[in-house]
Amino acid sequence: MHSNDSAAPRQIHEAFTQLLRWAHRGDVRTALLGAAAQTLSPHDIALLRTIAGHGPVRASTLATWSRVDKSTVTPQVRRLEERGLVTRRHDPGDRRAALLTVTDHGRAKLAEIDEVGTGLFGSALQEWSTADRDTLATLIQRLAAELAAVSTGRTTSHG
């Protein structure tokens, strides 16, 4: 860390803590997620998004990616199935295993969540310049990648 950056980690930590408190408020969850906030947890939504982006995928693979035991992912997958958001079918490569795929209803639910959340951030940032919005988007994506790498012991290489 550079000596002139010594205040930055504390300021980022304080801002991040404030954002976490904000994001956990019920009214904010609804503003971020729309109606999905009433029936899906943030973990359910993350799992649904992962299946949509990487499916068809096995539950065991999801557990590995999430760094949890398969027994943790199984009830989440079951909830998504019960809500008609994902479906499972036999893995043609291993008939004992099942592959998970997002349904049309699941994709529509993700699109709804994205539309609501994008609208919230669009409103919050409407007075910001395009350059500032673009910079924030770049840096927050970078921060998310760095935090994920730190928590898993990996490193990233950003300039």
From TrEMBL:
One Pfam family hit: MarR
GO MF annotation list: DNA binding; DNA-binding transcription factor activity
SUPFAM superfamilies: Winged helix' DNA-binding domain (SSF46785)
Domain HTH marR-type: 13-145
Keyword DNA-binding part of the UniProt annotation: yes
Keyword DNA-binding carried by entry: yes
Keywords assigned: DNA-binding
GO terms of biological process kind: response to stress
PROSITE patterns in alphabetical order: HTH_MARR_2 (PS50995)
Top-level division of the source organism's lineage: Bacteria
Protein name listed in UniProt: DNA-binding MarR family transcriptional regulator
